[in-house]
Structures are given as C-alpha cells and as structure tokens.
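Take a look at the protein record below and tell me what you see:
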Amino acid sequence: MSTAPHGGIGRRIAYYRSVAHLTQRQLAEAADIHLGTLLKIERGVRGASDSVVEALAAAIGIDPSLLLADRAQASSRIVAALPTLSAAIAAYDLPDDGPVRPLSELSAAVADTVTWRLASQYVQITRRLPDLLTELFRAGPERDPAVAALTASALRSADAVAYKVGAYDLSARLIELMRWSSALANDPNLAATTAYVRTETFFAADAHQQGLRALELALDAGPAPRAAPAIAARGALHMRAAVIAGRAGNASAADTHLAEARRLGDQVPEAIYGGTAFGPSSVRIHEVSVAVSLGSDHVHRALDVAREWAPPPDLPAERRSGFYIELARAQLWSGLPDDAFESLKVARRIAPQHTRDHRWVREDAATLRRLKRGHAESLTGFAEWCHAT
C-alpha cells in the first residue's frame, strides 16, 4: 500500500479540517483512526497511507486528491485504475458469481458515484466503480429495468473519468454499454441522457456535424416535455446541441438550440435531473460555451455574460470550473491574459482535478507562459501543475 509523503499533506488536512469546522478529535473519530495518528500526520511527523487519506477525505467530505501533497499522485492513481475498470466492463455479460446487495443499497452506492462525478472527485470514482459495476452486472440489468437504470448511471460516472483523462477508446466502450443498459431500462428520459453523454465521442473525434445530427435525432425521439424531468432532459440536449453546433461553425443552429434551452430552462428550477444539472444557471454557462465554440469573433458574448453574472456556489463543481475554463479562453482571445490567468486559478480552486486534466487549461497556460504575462513565479508554477508544454 502506497503512502503519501509527509510534506504538505498535514497542512492540507489541517486546512480542510478547519474549513469543515471539525476538531482533530472529531475528524479522527469520523475517519475511524487514532487521534495520535492524525496529530502526527498534521505535524508532518509521519505520512498517510492511501486508506488513511481516503478515510480522512470521506470524513471531511472532499476528494482525496485535495489532500495529496503532489496532485500528480491523483492523476497517476486514476490512470493506474483504468485497466481494472476496463476488465470490469469486458466481462459485463459474464460476471463472476458473488454477493449482490439489495436494490436500495445498490441505489445508494450509485448515488454516491453521481455525487463524486458532479464534484469532480475522480479518485473516489476509480476506486469504487470497478467492483460496483461488476456487482450491477451480476444483479442482471437484462432482468430488471431498475438495475439497468442504475447500471447506466454508474457507467456514466466511469465514463466521466475516462473522458477527462483522455482515454477516449475506453470512454467510447463505456458509452456503448450505457446505451445498452439504458435501452433495457426502457426510460425515455434516460435515453435522452445517454444521447447527451454520447456526444463526447463526437467531440473527441472532432465529428461535430455528425454529433449535431445525432442530438437532433435524439430530440425528435425524446419524450414530450411535460413534467420537469422530461423538460430538463430535452433542455440538456438543446444545450449540448448548441455547443456542438458552435464547434461545427453553424452559428444559426447554435443560437436556435440555445434559445430553446433557455426557454425550457425558465420552466424548471435549477437542479440535478437524471444526473445532469439543468436550469437557468446551466443554460447561462452554456451561453459562454457556445460563444467560445463559435470562435474568436463571438467571444465578446462570453465576456458580456461574465461581466454581469457568475455561477452560484450550489452548482456542481465541474460545471462551475468549466465556466471559468471557457471564460479564460475567451479572455485570452480578447487580449486579456491577466484576466485569463485569474479565471484559470478560480477554476483550479473549484475543481482541481477537472481543471488539471482539461486540455484547454494546458493549452492556455502554455500560451500565457509564452506571453510572459502575470506573476512569473505563480504562472510557471501553474503551468507545471497542469503539465503545460
């Protein structure tokens, strides 16, 4: 079992413990470790094993990557876990014999993965998903629509990690299994969600026109937007279609889909529907995404949004950090490198693992470094942190 080095981890634990308003004794009891062990870790006298780091992070309510002295450890652990995830889905139709928890417990376990995905807690996902997916396959998605729906949700959480770290072949396999399981669930809203996620394969392949067509076909086949879940499912598809239309250079289609997403977003409160955030704030964030997708001639629209609005703190961390990552690109293209660097730092504070693994962050940090703008030391440190070249 690996052990996190002493340097920095004790200070990080103490910091996040104080943010959570926990005493050392309270944290030790919540994490089920000896108080003396925690005291030594916080003083830097000893390191912390993986299991201790995970227990402390769970007790505080954060991802373990935030406690690691070297954030590169988080990425290396995620990448190292991908083969185990691949092995779990390779045997989806031939699961090993073993125990299966009651449906209520499986549902709670899958709900945890959704929470981790929305908070960009990728270490947690990669540690828990392989065994959970194997158990769900064992439970029989083909025999129980409820199990099929849970399987689709768990596969989506696994895909979030694979896609973010650039494992696009694995991501595509996970999405195909998500399509398989969502079809077994016979849930139109889940089918719409699956179409939303499938767009990642088109983004990865730069097949934007085909992706737009796939989303428009999903909209044609989708449920009538009467109840809130169906409204949100349809609105999310329009948000996604607006962005990919922008990437395809189709400004007219982008604006049409964005207007429809805005109309539907005004009909429901901001919330998580079927694992996807949707509502007025999510649509506003996608206005920035569409502006950046359409290119440098449209980025003033992104700056206009950011001038009068910022994502509220109750939105998922990944979505909020994505807003600032896209805004940074708009600012960089507009000749505002200092503002762009500030936006990237905000994104890092909100969701460090999501920000660190984002291709645009590496590209923009490298550009900023070449421009030699901002505080040289902090910019260099940021560029090294996200592996900008």
Q: What stands out?
A: The chain has four domains: 1-70, 71-186, 187-294, 312-389. The first helix runs from residue 9 to 19. Residues 312-389 form one domain. The chain has 20 helices and four strands.
